[in-house]
Amino acid sequence: MNLITADPVDRNHFPVDEWALVETEFDVAQQGRNETLFTVGNGYLGLRGNLDEGRDGHAYGTYVNGFHETWPIQHAEEAYGFARVGQTIVNVPDAKIIRLYVDDEPFVLSKADILRHSRRLDFSDGLLTREIEWRTPSGKHVLIRSRRMVSFTDRHLAIIDYEVEMLDAEASILISSQLLNRQDGVDEYQVNLLKEGGAFDPRKAESFRDRVLQPRLKRIEDTRYLLGFSTTNSRMTIACGIEHDLLTDNEWDQTSHIEDDLATHAYRIKAKPGRPVRLLKNISYHTSRSVPARELADRCSRTLDRAREMSTEEHFRQQRAWLTDFWSRSDVEIEGQPAIQQAVRWNLFQLAQSTARTDGGGIAAKGVSGSGYGGHYFWDTEVYVLPFLSYTAPVVARNALRFRQSMLEPARARAAELNQRGALFPWRTINGEESSAYYAASTAQYHIDADISYALMQYVAATGDDDFLNRGAIDILVETARMWADLGFWRSNGDDNFHIHGVTGPDEYTTVVNDNLYTNVMARANLRSAVRAVASLQAIDGPAHARMVARLGLGDDELDEWARAAERMHIPFDERAGIHPQDAAFLEKELWDLENTPPSKRPLLLHYHPLVIYRFQVLKQADVVLALHLQGHEFTTRQKRSDFEYYEALTTGDSTLSAVVQSIIAAEVGYHDLALRYFLSSLFVDLADLHRNTSDGIHVASTGGVWSALVYGFGGMRDHNGRITLEPRLPEAWTRVSFRITLRGTRVRADVMQDAITLTVETGDTATVSVHGRPIELTAGFPVTVPLDDQGPRLTGAPTTSDIEGSRRADGSLVTASIPRITVNP
Q1: Alpha-carbon distances of 417 from 82, 433, 441, 500, 504, rounded to whole Å
Q2: Distances (CA, A) of 132 to 33, 54, 278
């Protein structure tokens, strides 16, 4: 992976502003990236940062979380248990469009004579604002301003405030507001982003060649328009509503038009200079798996009715108030680093936009910013996003876990289909069913069961919400523990260990292996959590325990089996190499020569057949190193350093899930400079389009990982077994990092400096943490400062594949892998 050491953003186009992303010049060549960067959303509804006028677009995207179409997966060769039905998020009708004509000249930004241009996504008020001065072909000067918002307080509402003012001459202005179900592009009815140039890229969404949205309703009520549709195969329904209000001192008239796929309300204004024309456009979307479109249209009308009860400015004030509360819980401040501060806040703001109003729905890999990965939910949520939510927005975390709980029945069915007891959650899904056609790198990643259980127990420990666990979420622990107990086996050749074979770990460049370390370590934690939770429920609530036992048919012998399997779980370790092999056969493979792999051949998955990649020691993303983070208490410091050094040299970073984890462990084992480089590479992954696919949507897991890299990495927080410990380790150039974590209702601010950490209770009463092994009792009104005397060694350099001594001898025997001695700075 090419790590960055400095700010990679073009500051001529995007100046530093700690509370906003600001664009000062329009670049049509970068519209795909910029549409993603300037998305506004709330977790349910997302409007890509397309221009208001509906032109110069890369992907005219409007997305509703979970609203999808299904399609039959065509396998070249069929086999039992393959995923049969694909799922892809639908690009819903676009309500953003407001076309502008001055003296019948269309305003097209890429062709217009622009005197000044700015666009600003404000993190403190949640508004996307734009201001442009246009000189028309006849020499008239026009000022265009707009504000766009997707509401955090009303999940079904978006607002556009669009203003045009003639500065120096009269003109005839036409403003055409539209609600459009697009029918353009290569497909007859294009609803998803096409794979560019026909090139293979599994990260992009599928496209359809048949009509997806079937018209079901169209309605006009004065300046209010409603369109309703149902998807062809999944039978989901959607209704979209827009309503208008024109404010101006100029003379004007209006016309209306509606058809199945288009609603248009047009205003013609005799505009005089200095008299602005302001159009207020309220927008509503409602979706359902079964409710008729006409009922959803009624819901849209009620949303629009409520919106009219307040002024637009009041809606904007509510948005700012919501975000004020969000930042009071979630902000991470980096003193004296304005460019990094801006990027951190952009990433945290994306977490809000991707999760805040999911309200019991899933959290997609791209949020609601694009169609990448088909709008699917992965393990990204539990491992990379839930830590942030559990410690800053526990209500949202609970909702995300409730969504997984709602998928338990299809997970049971999937386990049965794969001849397992218990439940097996789908690797990628929208509706709860597995939708990945490539089982080796998807279905075989059974570790998703353990990831979900890990996130559940992390949430319960952070919040103290035992009621959520005891009132039904415990079923997740029981059914996933059953799956592990059934999937694994005991060897009978004198090896009294529990083994798990035929699985894929997080690293998708190594598939269907035996005893993947990450899987085994996480499965062990899953089994132990289930045993403890069942015993705890029996001790504190006998009737609830009895209901759970009856509901799940749980026997005492199962608990004994789980405890024994956890105790005897096989954890691969190579004594000669001094490292944990990623799996039972990993060290037997040849090393991939990453140093001599040209950039034109990266990422590997787009340039090499999977069988080529699978034959080598090479990683798409952190695997063992991720286990070192999530289950760090199970490894010694020496083991962590040896493992990190070995796998650091083999990891391509082709996945955006990797850098944040490598940053956390690099900081822990002493590679502070390398930790910062990994952090910067994850921090700017979208802002600088480092993986060249930001146009498909935000990398939501990476945004969550940015928070983890700051809090777990540089802040040194660990939460193993529910105990909060802090061992900070700041980069040398940083003077202070401040972050907040909410512990069982008490919000604690940590101010980390090079030589001390100050802990302050901001809300609530008391909390207990440990700093470098020293227990600290925190009480409201009494900040505690703890000196940081020993932050461990600082290691220089970064291992490469050339540092690893071979892999196999000529006779086929294994050569001991090793890393050269690392220089330790005094």
Answers
A1: 10, 12, 18, 18, 18
A2: 20, 15, 15
d(C-alpha 821, C-alpha 539), whole Å: 52
Catalytic residue positions, numbered: 508
Cα 159 versus chain centre, distance = 24
CB half-sphere exposure, 474, CA atoms < 13 A: 27
d(CA 730, CA 672): 8
Q: Where does residue 172 fall: left (phi above 0), alpha (psi -120 to 50 degrees), or beta otherwise?
A: beta
- Give the sign of the dihedral formed by CA 779, CA 782, CA 783, CA 785: negative
727 contact partners, CB below 8 Å, separation of at least 6: 668, 716, 718, 771, 772, 791
Can you give the pLDDT at residue 2?
74
Instruction: Identify the helix (H) or strand (E) that includes residue 463.
Output: helix 448-463
Q: How far apart are CA 126 and CA 19, in angstroms?
A: 10
CB 357 within 8 A of CB 389: no
Label the pairing between strands 105-106 and 98-102: antiparallel
Establish how many alpha carbons lie within 13 A of residue 257's alpha carbon, considering only the half-sphere containing its beta carbon: 10
Give residue 486's Cα distance to chain centre. 32
CA dist., res. 724 & res. 714, Å (int): 15
Distance between CA atoms of residues 791 and 794, nearest Å? 9
Residues 6+ apart with CB under 8 A from 143: 131, 132, 133, 134, 164, 165, 166, 167
Where do the H-state alpha helices sit in 331-393? 338-355, 380, 386-392
- Cβ contacts of 91 within 8 Å, gap of 6 or more: 59, 60, 61, 62, 63, 182, 190, 191, 192, 193, 371
Q: What is the pLDDT of residues 16-56, one digit of tens each?
A: 999 999 999 999 999 999 999 999 999 999 999 999 999 88
Long-range contacts of 416-422 (CB under 8 A, 24+ apart): 417/81, 418/81, 418/443, 420/483, 420/486, 420/487, 421/482, 421/483, 421/485, 421/486, 422/478, 422/479, 422/480, 422/481, 422/482, 422/483, 422/484, 422/485, 422/486
How far apart are alpha carbons 587 and 707 in whole angstroms?
33
Q: Could you give the CA distance from residue 56 to residue 54 in angstroms, rounded to a whole number?
A: 7
- The C-alpha atoms of residue 545 and residue 253 are separated, in whole angstroms, by 69
Token pair recorded at residue 601: 């051949």
**What is the model's pLDDT at position 461?**
98
What pLDDT sits at residue 790? Answer: 66
What are φ and ψ of residue 463, in 5° steps? Answer: -105, -20
Query: Residue 787 burial by CB count (10 A; 0-12/13-18/19+): exposed, middle or buried?
Result: exposed
- 542: which residues sit within 8 A by CB, 6+ positions away? none
Is the CB of residue 652 less than 8 Å from the CB of residue 599?
Answer: no
Indicate if the alpha-carbon torsion angle 592, 598, 599, 601 is positive or negative.
negative
- DSSP output for 188-230: SS--SPPPGGG---TTSPP--SS--EEEEEEEEETTEEEEEEE
Closest C-alpha among 155, 147, 139 to residue 120: 147
Q: What is the CA radius of gyration of the chain?
A: 27
The pLDDT of residue 810 is 36
Residue 791 has a pLDDT of: 66
Beta strand segments in 660-792, E: 717-718, 725-726, 736-743, 746-753, 756-763, 766-771, 774-779, 784-787
* 647: number of Cβ within 10 Å: 25
Residue 188 is predicted with a pLDDT of: 30
Q: Are 463 and 395 in contact (CB under 8 A)?
A: no
Q: What is the pLDDT of residue 822?
A: 32
* pLDDT given for residue 819 in this prediction: 44
Q: Are 26 and 114 in contact (CB under 8 A)?
A: yes
- What are the tokens at 150? 């997707």
Q: How far is 86 from 192, CA to CA, in rounded Å? A: 14
The 10s digit of each residue's pLDDT in 617-640 is 999 999 999 999 999 999 999 999
Residue stretches of the chain with pLDDT short of 50? 184-198, 807-826
Secondary element (H or E) of residue 163? strand 157-166
In this prediction, residue 204 carries a pLDDT of 67
